[in-house]
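User: Hey, my collaborator sent me this sequence without any context and asked if I could get a structure. I don't really work with proteins. Can you help?
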Amino acid sequence: QVQVVESGGGLVQAGGSLRLSCTASGLTFGNYAMGWFRQAPGKEREGVSCISWNGGRTDYVDSVKGRFTISRDNAKRTLYLQMNSLKPEDTAIYYCAAARSRFDSCSGSWLSIARSDNYWGQGTQVTVSS
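Assistant: No problem. I've predicted the 3D structure and written it out in structure-token form, which is a compact way to encode the shape of the chain:
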């Protein structure tokens, strides 16, 4: 059984930083693209960033480029999202996702749809105060 668990959310002032972490078990972590999605109240879940199985490719939604950095440590089975220069509009529940298939690659297309057949965590709340 695949389990995905996020941590690291919290309350931060605008301009501050947070680092989210995600661990995944029950799958060969290093074989799968991983990503972060977020969902604000009243909005659909949107893709934030993804990373290929070996970290060689990353992609970001335009609104976070230059502020967020995704990375992974396959030996630790952990995915990270370093978030700097946070803005109130970054407030959302952040979800970690593992691609359902090892043939799915990190891309704008993969980020554009929060596929129900991805492996999802329960989410971690990020709140940015102005």
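In plain terms: The chain is about 5% helix and 45% strand. You can pass these tokens on to your collaborator as they are.
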